[in-house]
Amino acid sequence: MTQSTTEAIAALARSARIASRQLRSLSTAAKNEALEAIAAALTQRSGEILAANEKDVERGRASGMSAGLLDRLTLTEERIDSIAQACRDLTALPDPVGQRTGYQLPNGLKVAQVRVPLGVIGMIYEARPNVTVDAATLALKSGNAVLLRGGSAAKDSNEVLCAVMREAIAGVGLPADSITSIDAYGREGAQALMEARGLIDVLIPRGGRELIDTVCTTAQVPVIETGTGNCHVYLHADADPADAQRIVLNAKTHRVGVCNAAETLLLHAGFEPARDILQALSKAGVTLHVDERAAEIARGLPGVTAATEEDWATEYLSLDLAVRVVDSLEEALSHISAYGSGHTEAIVTASLDARAAFTEGVDAAAVMVNASTRFTDGGQLGLGAEIGISTQKLHARGPMGLSALTTTTWLIEGEGHVRD
Amino acid sequence: MTQSTTEAIAALARSARIASRQLRSLSTAAKNEALEAIAAALTQRSGEILAANEKDVERGRASGMSAGLLDRLTLTEERIDSIAQACRDLTALPDPVGQRTGYQLPNGLKVAQVRVPLGVIGMIYEARPNVTVDAATLALKSGNAVLLRGGSAAKDSNEVLCAVMREAIAGVGLPADSITSIDAYGREGAQALMEARGLIDVLIPRGGRELIDTVCTTAQVPVIETGTGNCHVYLHADADPADAQRIVLNAKTHRVGVCNAAETLLLHAGFEPARDILQALSKAGVTLHVDERAAEIARGLPGVTAATEEDWATEYLSLDLAVRVVDSLEEALSHISAYGSGHTEAIVTASLDARAAFTEGVDAAAVMVNASTRFTDGGQLGLGAEIGISTQKLHARGPMGLSALTTTTWLIEGEGHVRD
After folding, report:
1. Are the beta carbons of B282 and B304 closer than 8 angstroms?
2. Would you give the distance in Å from CA B61 to the centre of its chain?
3. Which side of chain A, N or C, has fewer Cβ within a 10 Å radius?
4. At what angle are helices B46-62 and B77-91 packed, to 10 degrees?
């Protein structure tokens, strides 16, 4: 990496730090006003945004980008409206900054922990212009400045979106440097961001496995790992048959390209409705990757193939499901412990003992009892907005809302107190 | 690094993981029984421990270890008693595991966030055998397994301490692999620990700047950065003179080798009692590293030297203090922002406006108002025990007690709920 890129990113990070000092002490009303200004500007300037996006989409199409990625990259008038609406929705959410808990010590010292913004947040993501607005506005509402690296595939869209947001917040008196794109510095800029120790407070990668692995193993700044979900649904011997079928179908087929979709089904040996459930999955277009015992249950169904060791570890993100028969809850837990990614694990059971053993034994961001894995989602759980789903254990675990973008300060007030 | 070290550390981490699964669901009573067993074993086997420690101390002395480090390395009957007492004190602390907050969604889903252990914790520290017991027992009380890398200088002591603790907990039915030393694998072992992605949940370095920097920039696993404190005391124009003098003296001289000691004094221009305060510091044996205006105030006092740019950034950990005169609270904030390490910053003032401006403007783990910086300490703040003082913003900030060694799981209970 060239020295000049490192210096350029450091300079941008320092400007973001200065902006963040102003953001720290803004009132909730002032932040909401800025969010409204962004929403209005996005709608007003949608022509400009769509024109820039068109360039990205054409470039993507020409370079043979997959249909799925192209769809994520594409903006429409309607999508811009919904992005603007999401900004407005943020104004209704409670502001975590300033929340406090406290107590007084026997020596008279008043002790409080006060919630404050993290400061400067780095985001690295791929080909999703909506994340540009999403990340910037969640950061703003929680009092943080952001440095955004949105990837070359969406660079024209991101450039205009950042310009629109910067002008909108400057128009209501906030520092433009609260929102900064570093896309112009390419991969070297991303690398410099990962190494900007002391200059940024946290780096959040959002995207595919490869991107996240690179950031987690390379970054010298604190990282929040997000997003990979190898989620299991375990149908216990005592599962209600109708619940079992509804939950498995929903977890697998409701939306396949997302991290909270189910990827492996664990069937308790002898669970009677298993055949009907596999049939329903097959009918829904799901390819079943089965172990030997599941193969017997699935015999004759279309779309069945033998599972290999690799299947247990695969996040398909498609209409594929690995299926294994287990003899006990303990065996289900062992399988999950060996192959799970710590995202979401579900059990369907009517047994209170099984429910307790499963929830005690599973180590994951979210554990579902008689509910679809698809509920691991900030919106579904009432957080109102989500910056990502953390699959690490530090700081935030599971869906991250506004308060995941804050930290605390110990505020200690004395009257000349010293230590003996 | 050799492949075999990587594999050996991975194997130890996997055994620790298995142990951590048992620890997860232990009752508080069972964990307390294990802590009592450790305390008893330390006292009973103090002869063995002292003999091993003697070897470390002799080696340290022979290799020219500094007096301060030798003191930290040395165990005595009395010190072992106080380490054992600290184990017993832990039994009285509330167990964070199992604490929950929750709510019910309009669709009937019951949502809870339940506090659970992190899992497997790695500790890298230097020449301090007391940390071996401290880290292992804090981890145990919070339901975690630990891998300990205590450094070659204390390897004989650590080996015996680990053996004593492993046997003690095995004696009450807990897995011995809850506590594992990796000292036998030397520097390569430490390196492998830092790269054990997916095998350990968090790595906590404790020690000098160099150790912490190495871990933070090298590790591929989540790290909690601890301990560097370039702490400031700002004497505002409206400070009570007696409070000001008492606080500055306490912050600088109460104990000099610790991260919450003051390293820079910021004097408001024209603050009358400044001369008396510098005189008192000088009399207490403090060398004052002064800027030009502070030099005028300090004229004629013994132990005064001109400050260089480097002084503002130095954590002396000795009877040295940098002193600078500032014209405004804003200038004090700028200085702290430029040179502070985000540990503890103090203001002495009788002005409510100054107090508010300072606490709003400073970005640090702890902010003291009319109190000594020395209060940033888990024991002092009522946490009961402390694994370290975090100077990063993610997960835990400031003194970290037992709950900093836990995370949460979302527990979502439905009755066949699926997403529309």
Report:
1. yes
2. 27
3. C
4. 120
Residue A254: strand, helix, or coil: coil
Contact A102, A126 (CB under 8 A): no
Cα separation, B141 vs B189, in Å, equals 26
Closest-CA residue of B relative to A398 is B410
Residue A38: how many other CB atoms lie within 10 Å: 29
pLDDT at B3: 80
Is B315 strand, coil or helix? coil
Contact: A397, B408; criterion CB under 8 Å: yes
CA atoms within 13 A on the CB side of A306: 2
Which residues does B341 contact at the CB level (< 8 Å), separation at least 6?
A: B228, B229, B230, B231, B315, B391
- Please check the confidence at residue B1 and state whether its pLDDT lies above 70: no
pLDDT in tens, B81-102: 999 999 999 999 999 999 999 9
pLDDT in tens, B157-198: 999 999 999 999 999 999 999 999 999 999 999 999 999 998
Can you give the pLDDT at residue A129?
94
Structure tokens given for A206: 């959002």
- d(CA A348, CA A346) in angstroms, rounded, equals 7
Are the beta carbons of B409 and A371 separated by less than 8 Å?
A: no
In contact, B119 and B17? CB cutoff 8 Å: yes
Q: How confident is the model at residue B385 (pLDDT cuts 50, 70, 90)?
A: confident
Q: What residue type is assigned to position B6 of the chain?
A: T
Structure token digits, residue A291? 């172990």
- The continuous run of DSSP H or E covering A47 comes out as helix A46-62
Start-to-end CA distance of chain A, whole Å, equals 52
Residues in A closer than 8 angstroms to B366, CB to CB, are 409-412
Structure tokens that stand for B69 in this block: 């480090």
Q: What is the secondary structure of A277-345 as a DSSP string?
A: HHHHHHHTTPEEEE-HHHHHHHTT-SSEEE--HHHHT----SSEEEEEEESSHHHHHHHHHHH--SSEE
Hunting for tokens 């703040």 — which residue is that? Answer: B381
Nearest to A80, CA basis, from A51, A122, A121: A51
CB within 8 Å of B88: residues ≥ 6 apart:
B35, B36, B39
Name residues 318-377 of chain A within 8 A of B (Cβ): 337, 359-361, 363-372, 374-376
Torsion A340-A344-A348-A352 (CA) sign: positive
Contact A243 B399 (CB under 8 A): no
Give the per-residue pLDDT at A69. Answer: 87
CA distances from B178 to A33, A243, A400, B181 (A): 52, 39, 31, 10
Q: Tell if the CB–CB gap between A409 and B250 is shorter than 8 Å.
A: no
Instruction: Give, as one character, the DSSP assignment of residue B269.
Output: T
Burial B391-415 (b: 16+ CB within 10 A, else e): bbbbbbbbbbbbbbbbbbbbbbbbe
Q: What is the distance between the alpha carbons of residues A2 and A27, in angstroms, rounded to a whole number? A: 40
Please answer whether residues A193 and A203 qualify as being in contact, where contact means their C-beta atoms are separated by less than 8 angstroms.
yes
Note whether A400 contacts B: Cβ–Cβ < 8 A: no
Residue A390 dihedral angles phi and psi, to the nearest 5°: -75, 130
Burial class (CB within 10 angstroms; exposed 0-12, middle 13-18, buried 19+) of B124: buried
List CB contacts of B82: < 8 A, sequence separation 6 or more: none
Burial of A316 by CB count in 10 Å (0-12 exposed, 13-18 middle, 19+ buried)? buried
E strands along A17-119, which residues? 100-104, 110-117
Residue in A291, A314, A319, A317 with CA at minimum distance from that of residue A303: A319
pTM as predicted: 0.91
Q: Is A98's Cβ below 8 Å from some Cβ in B?
A: no
Any B CB within 8 A of A104 CB: no
Strand partners, A206: A125
